[in-house]
Amino acid sequence: MAEPLGPAARVQGSLRGRILIAADADETDEELAELMESGPVFPDEQGSR
Fold it and tell me: Can you tell me whether residue 12 is helix, strand or coil?
């Protein structure tokens, strides 16, 4: 019998209770949103990291 080509099929619900999502995961971080919308497109000329 030939071996399967890929990984075994996943079973729905097998990770139930193992993955936790923070209570505030759907809240917007205003500081991060501001940086993404109006922050610099290119790094400064010094190239600092």
Answer: coil
